[in-house]
Specification:
This protein has four helices and no strands. By secondary structure, it is mainly α. The chain folds into two domains: about 35 residues, no CATH class; about 30 residues, no CATH class. The longest helix has 16 residues. About 0% of the residues are buried.
Length: about 80
């Protein structure tokens, strides 16, 4: 029986090369096998993340129609 990783790799191989490269970078990062240094966040980025976490803790999420409107605005 194939392992879950084997199944994921098989599915990834069916994707375009650019998507395969993106997936490979993520796997390497998660496995700690990449040479990329950690990303340093700016104070503004840290504040935005903190605000998002606080909103999530309050259960303050966008409504379905708000999400669809944003997607439509960006052609998604």
């Amino acid at each position: 029986m194939d392992t879950l990783l084997d199944q994921a790799l098989q599915a990834a191989r069916a994707l375009p090369q650019a998507a395969q490269d993106d997936i490979a970078r993520v796997v390497l990062r998660l496995a700690g096998a990449d040479a990329e240094p950690p990303v340093t966040l700016s104070p503004e980025e840290r504040a935005a993340i903190a605000a998002s976490r606080e909103a999530a803790a309050r259960g303050d999420f966008a409504a379905e129609e708000q999400v669809r409107a944003i997607w439509a605005k960006h052609g998604l």
